[in-house]
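$ ./design --mode recover --in tokens.txt
reading tokens...
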């Protein structure tokens, strides 16, 4: 089942005396669901000398491919995600009054899951079900003709991922400047781009859009291998990993979905990301650390130290690529939303260490979403300018178009939005953790339970979060065979602060499991731990401290399901590939709470499982971490 999307551009129809569309951005519609979009060859009657692209959330494809770039793309966005925009980009498009208009045609193919067992049953139970793939797996909405014009921003209706025109022009400037330089180690200043802003400003949307834009620009300029490095320093809402990690990853495919679908779940081996035609896995995790918390305030010094080590790894990787003639390697740095108080000092320390040539600062109109940044580098490279590009926060922007004056749009990343997505940041973290331990999002949604004649699945609700009334997640985790790990095979690091003040257990940090105290074992039992390696070959230094989280390469997360003290065995559940588990020699505890959805089995549970203290710190059980109220104003008489 396929459809043809046709876009006709006639410059003479535009209100332009020069009959010209220069650097115009024209939104033509939105798309969601799962589909393959392919641009058809350009007709001979159309303008062949013009530069025209179809922009899919920042990733641009053209009819006139150079041989290095395909003119097709896979889109996979489930119902709970906002639809993404389809935009036509023109660059100095001109035509005479008697010339034929330019016709851009895109073919849309439905993509069905081969492992979906509902299709055969539907065909056998419905006499009118003539085709096995009769229904479309995508939803495309084209704008009315009177809404299609150069510079239009968005469409009417909710559930649309909107990219402001200011964001587009800023990324165009940054991408061209960072990639059109000489390929040598001394010209890397402008290739490092840092994105910062307060919570709910749309940083994650900007990161995905910037990644897609940088990938497109690299292929367009034929600047060697088309990869983008992402230094993900948002340990609470990371883009390419599970919460609790800070990572350096290489991305070679556009990011057209939300994190649960493209995060690395098995260490980059046998990944669940199978939506690539060439079978190439993207993203690829180059290096990662287990920070063990969802905020940098847990250990700011350790956080900055790990960030510096990942920056060193990027510099080494960049030098290797230059020596091998692979061209530019731009770096996008993703930061968290803590920009006030001590969080501002951490952000400035990251900027000083990374030395980015371009900073995209997302500001709002309120005081909580406004902050200042130094525009110049004060370090050893003070001669190089640092460009700060200030863009408007999406939550602060009201977009009004004709016949839709009552619509307001908010970013999909805003946790306090009154728009279509109201699930909290905690709900999104639980969603990622559940998808991670199921082996990936696609594997998670394929989990089914048969109730009578109906097949119940796991869904994610835009307002309620994970919906699993039949406890499929808990039942699946309970039936998973665990890995048995001998005590003597691993060293243990208890959760930071968990055993503070107990002098006799201080040697438990980094000791072999055989010599661990009962308190140290109890601290790790039933909790999420980082699976780390010593001597991992990544050229990452290791901390010599006796407490806190060690600086060790982390291949992923695991759950210590239980501990057999008599046989001295840890029983561990993890989606990490077995080939990587053979190098794991350290279990590092943290403060990442285990979602109740993964352990509660409803009426099938004979007893409630053991949970660590950190897992109990959740509002769903009536408790939470104490928060400061010093920011509250005094009551006025």
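writing sequence...
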């Amino acid at each position: 089942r396929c459809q043809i999307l046709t876009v006709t551009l006639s410059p003479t129809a535009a209100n332009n005396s020069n009959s010209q569309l220069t650097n115009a951005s024209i939104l033509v519609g939105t798309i969601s669901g799962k589909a393959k979009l392919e641009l058809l060859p350009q007709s001979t009657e159309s303008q062949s000398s013009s530069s025209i692209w179809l922009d899919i959330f920042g990733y641009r494809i053209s009819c006139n491919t150079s041989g290095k770039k395909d003119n097709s793309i896979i889109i996979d966005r489930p119902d709970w995600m906002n639809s993404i925009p389809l935009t036509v980009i023109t660059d100095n498009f001109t035509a005479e009054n008697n010339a034929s208009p330019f016709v851009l045609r895109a073919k849309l193919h439905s993509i069905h899951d081969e492992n979906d067992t509902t299709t055969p049953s539907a065909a056998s139970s419905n006499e009118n079900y003539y085709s096995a793939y009769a229904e479309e797996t995508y939803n495309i909405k084209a704008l009315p003709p009177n809404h299609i014009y150069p510079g239009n921003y968005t469409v009417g209706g909710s559930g649309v991922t909107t990219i402001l025109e200011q964001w587009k022009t800023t990324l165009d400037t940054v991408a061209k400047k960072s990639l059109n330089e000489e390929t040598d180690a001394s010209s890397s200043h402008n290739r490092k781009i840092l994105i910062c802003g307060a919570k709910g400003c749309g940083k994650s949307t900007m990161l995905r859009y910037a990644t897609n834009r940088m990938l497109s620009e690299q292929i367009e300029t034929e600047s060697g291998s088309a990869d983008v490095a992402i230094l993900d320093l948002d340990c609470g809402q990371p883009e390419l990993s599970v919460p609790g990690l800070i990572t350096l990853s290489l991305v070679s495919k556009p990011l057209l979905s939300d994190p649960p679908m493209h995060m690395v779940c098995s260490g980059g081996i046998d990944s669940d990301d199978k939506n690539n035609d060439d079978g190439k896995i993207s993203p690829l995790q180059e290096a990662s650390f287990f920070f063990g918390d969802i905020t940098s305030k847990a250990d700011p010094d350790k956080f900055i130290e790990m960030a510096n080590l990942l920056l060193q790894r990027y510099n080494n990787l960049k030098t290797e690529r230059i020596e091998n003639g692979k061209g530019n390697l731009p770096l996008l740095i993703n930061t968290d939303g803590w920009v006030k108080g001590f969080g501002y000092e951490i952000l400035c320390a990251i900027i000083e260490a990374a030395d980015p040539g371009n900073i995209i600062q997302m500001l709002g109109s309120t005081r909580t979403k406004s902050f200042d940044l130094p525009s110049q580098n004060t370090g050893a490279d003070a001669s190089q300018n640092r460009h700060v590009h200030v863009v408007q926060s999406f939550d602060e922007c009201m977009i009004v178009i004709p016949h839709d004056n009552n619509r307001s749009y908010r970013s999909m990343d805003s946790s306090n939005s009154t728009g279509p997505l109201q699930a909290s940041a905690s709900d999104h973290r639980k969603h990622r953790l559940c998808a991670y331990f199921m082996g990936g999002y696609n594997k998670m949604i394929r989990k089914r339970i048969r109730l009578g004649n109906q097949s119940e699945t796991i869904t994610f609700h835009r307002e309620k979060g994970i919906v699993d009334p039949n406890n499929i997640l808990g039942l699946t985790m309970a039936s998973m065979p665990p890995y048995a790990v001998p005590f003597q095979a691993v060293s243990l690091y208890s959760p930071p602060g968990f055993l503070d003040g107990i002098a006799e257990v201080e040697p438990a940090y980094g000791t072999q499991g055989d010599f661990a105290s009962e308190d140290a074992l109890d601290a790790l039992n039933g909790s999420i731990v980082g699976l780390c390696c010593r001597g991992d070959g990544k050229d990452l230094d290791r901390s010599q401290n006796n407490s806190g989280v060690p600086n060790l390469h982390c291949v992923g997360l695991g759950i210590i399901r239980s501990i057999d003290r008599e046989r001295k065995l840890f029983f561990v559940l993890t989606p990490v590939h077995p080939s990587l588990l053979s190098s794991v020699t350290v279990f590092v505890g943290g403060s990442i709470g285990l979602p109740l959805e993964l352990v509660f089995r409803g009426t099938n549970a004979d007893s409630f499982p053991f949970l660590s203290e950190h897992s109990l710190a959740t509002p769903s059980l009536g408790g939470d971490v104490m928060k400061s109220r010093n920011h509250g104003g005094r009551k006025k008489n």
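exit 0
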